[in-house]
Amino acid sequence: MKTKAGTxxxxxxxxxxxxxxxxxxxxxxxxxxxxxxxxPLEVDEEIQVFLYQDKKGxxxxxxxxxxxxxxxxxxxxxxxxxxxxxxFVNIGIAKEILVxxxxxxxxxxxxxxxGDMLYVTLDFDKKGRMLAIPxxxxxxxxxxxxxxxxxxxxxxxxRVYRSSKEGAxxxxxxGYRGFIHHTERKxxxxxGEWLEGRVIDVKKDGTINVSLLPLKQVGMVDDAEMIxxxxxxxxxxxxxxxxxxxxxxxxxxxxxKAAFKRALGKLMKEGxxxxxxxxxxxxx
Length: 284
Known about the structure:
Elements: E1 8-17, E2 20-24, E3 30-33, E4 46-53, E5 59-62, E6 74-82, E7 86-90, E8 97-100, E9 117-124, E10 130-134, H1 137-140, E11 155-163, E12 167-172, E13 177-181, E14 194-202, E15 208-211, H2 216-233, E16 237-238, H3 246-253, H4 257-269, E17 273-276, E18 279-282
Parallel strand pairs: 3-5, 13-15
Antiparallel strand pairs: 1-2, 1-4, 2-3, 4-5, 6-7, 6-9, 7-8, 9-10, 11-12, 11-14, 12-13, 14-15, 16-18, 17-18
């Protein structure tokens, strides 16, 4: 039988050595290190193990059976981020597994951070190295839970498994597929980030659309506070008003022009600001 990393095998102890046990039953012998077993083993004893590659690329065994394998997906925590290389995830075994930059977003600022979780399986690159591969849309297509219409306008929590300029896709706590259009967020979420939003649409195929933006009434208060803070940090004046370019507003405040104008209107009504010649000032 072929010796393949990333799989579960039932192997037999054929001899003991100083560093552990040598297992047989495959086309090549496999080392099971002492630290990978909970109790001593005997020669000819059969044992279930998981095979993986050590730092030298050799196939070795562990009695720890991870939920992430070559034939299964599960969540794995990001434990290290290495610029230009990728991120390493913990699947429950002694060795951390690389998620290559080739399988991460092109823009590194939306790469996962330490503590984020990726939904991954195991596979191999052209050099035969075992890697963790994040879930793709093609694999997940049709596998989500059907969301009921009753969750419309309800809060929802989930983790990002795909992120792009067009939008992000999350897998919710309940197993629903949720899409967050780029207009329904203030910034592009990281892959693997945990998010909280609200359901704004339930589609016929059981998927949902999610918004990360607050309701207008709540958002207006938050936006107004942000504008006041901005003014205070800029000597009480800013080169923005209700006639400012929408792109400039979005770039500076990460909100739409409509939201910006609502917040300005609230502050002017409260007598906290005034506008002159396209500029906005804090009232003393």
